[in-house]
């Protein structure tokens, strides 16, 4: 007899919860940057494609510029972890 898996599908509510965790983590990162006892929360790295020199396509009529970068910090990861816990617990 087959058992049902307890995987929950990612709904629009779940996406909003995860995005709010990212925003909350970014806010905490900015708040703790200058505060020495909690400055470890703002420790992180930035990585991406085309951040220093973005890819530019110039067609003389239209110019397109492409670049993508991510910034991860400890506070953002904690915000994502908290949002994952909220999503699994209540939704």
**How many helix segments?**
2
- Give the assembly state of these chains: single chain
| Overall body shape | flat
- Which spans have pLDDT < 50 for at least 5 consecutive residues? none
Kindly name the structural category.
alpha+beta
Radius of gyration: 19 Å
What gap, in angstroms, lies between the N and C termini? Answer: 27 Å
Helix fraction, binned, reads 40-55%
Topology order in helix (H) and strand (E) letters: HEEEEH
State the major sheet: 2 strands, antiparallel
For the largest beta sheet, what order do the strands appear in spatially? Answer: 1-4
User: Per DSSP, what share of the residues sits in E-state strands of 2 or more residues?
Assistant: 15-25%
Please give the number of β-strands. 4
Determine the mean pLDDT. 89
Give a topology summary:
Layout: H1 12-32, E1 44-49, E2 55-58, E3 63-66, E4 68-73, H2 74-90
Antiparallel strand pairs: 1-4, 2-3
Helix pairs in contact: 1-2
Supply database-style keywords:
91 residues; 42% helix; alpha+beta; 2 helices; two-stranded antiparallel ribbon; two-stranded antiparallel sheet; 4 strands
Brief synopsis:
The protein has 2 helices and 4 strands. The protein has 91 residues and is of the alpha+beta class.
